[in-house]
Specification:
about 160 residues; alpha/beta; six-stranded mixed beta sheet; 3 helices; 6 strands
Length: about 160
């Protein structure tokens, strides 16, 4: 989800809920403690210089059980961040404290903002000797055992 998409979504909401990949909701008394941009400059294992940028939201749950952030408040925080930091319309990454700080993608299902799982990946598979994925073959499409008969030329 891009920054422009969450802004459009917030306008129509009466409340905000974030749902973790396991289906649990982030406690409703969460705070959005940061909105910013993270820039990652790195070199991959194939020697290619790369640059990635994301908008970062940090969610935090405290013992302030009466606190509820409303959509218009989060929209105000986002707009202030855009103005002050000059944020471009990038994908959003959400940090949330579980057993350790987790990083999630963001989606919306019509009711809740969904914290989506992220995974590591090799960005230079062609340079690392990582084989391409094997083609899937249906067993029903394989030739019968007759192809392996003596003199058939297939074995």
């Amino acid at each position: 989800m891009k920054l422009s998409q969450i802004k459009r979504t917030l306008v129509d909401l009466e409340s905000i809920a974030f749902q973790l990949p396991n289906g649990e909701l982030v406690p409703r008394h969460f705070h959005v403690t940061e909105v910013g941009m993270i820039t990652k400059n790195f070199i991959d294992c194939g020697g290619t210089l790369r640059n990635e940028e994301v908008i970062n939201f940090q969610l935090w749950s405290a013992n302030d059980y009466d606190h509820r952030i409303h959509p218009e408040k989060l929209l105000h925080i986002i707009e202030l961040s855009e103005k002050t930091l000059g944020l471009p319309d990038l994908d959003i990454e959400v940090e949330y404290q579980g057993e350790t700080i987790g990083k999630y993608g963001l989606d919306f299902d019509g009711t809740n903002f969904l914290l989506t799982s992220k995974a590591t990946d090799c960005l230079a598979k062609e340079n690392c000797g990582i084989p391409a994925s094997k083609p899937k073959v249906k067993l029903s499409e394989l030739q019968t055992a007759e192809c392996c008969a003596p003199g058939s030329g297939c074995c």
